[in-house]
Amino acid sequence: MIRDIEDSAAEFMAIRRDLHAHPELSFAEERTASRVAELLEGWGIPVVRGVGRTGVVGILQRGQGKRAIGLRADMDALPVEEHNRFDHASRHPGRMHACGHDGHTAMLLAASRHLALHAEFDGTIVLIFQPAEEGGTGALAMMADGLFERFLWMPSSPRTTGRACLWAALQSARGR
Length: 176
Description:
By secondary structure, this protein is of the alpha+beta class. The protein has one domain: Zn peptidases (Aminopeptidase, 3-Layer(aba) Sandwich), CATH 3.40.630.10. It has seven helices and four strands, in the order H-H-H-E-E-E-H-E-H-H-H. A hairpin with a 3-residue loop joins strand 1 (about 45-50) and strand 2 (about 55-60). Helix 2 runs antiparallel to helix 4. The longest helix is centred in the middle third of the chain and has 18 residues, at about 100-120. The protein starts with a helix and ends with a helix. Mean pLDDT is about 90; it is low at about 155-170.
């Protein structure tokens, strides 16, 4: 395992447990989004809030490279009653992270911190924290808000190479 991430495991376990204790449903991820944005900014990563309503995008750039990659985690919880009795069980009746999105968010945060502090690359890493995955509308909202155009592929750049494949996948997902 990467030493830096291993050394900060307790920090990210605490973050995951905090997120688990405070689950938020689709498009209501206000606390989660704020926490994510504040952590990213604290590590020197520029952030755009409110992408697709409650989504967060961090932009990590190095060098002059035109290549970009997106890393994504989902943030929303489910409308499920939690029956666990551990200290970080949901503090909100009828809501819980039953699908692991608290873990997904914590893992991407750990990767984000490591990349911000130690990664050597030439290009852009786009850190995408998606709302409303459970309802199936969060990704669409982020795309409608210009996720690809604003952060991953600029017109007339080498970043457009995968766009046709992604567009075909999107159309397929929409049933077209």
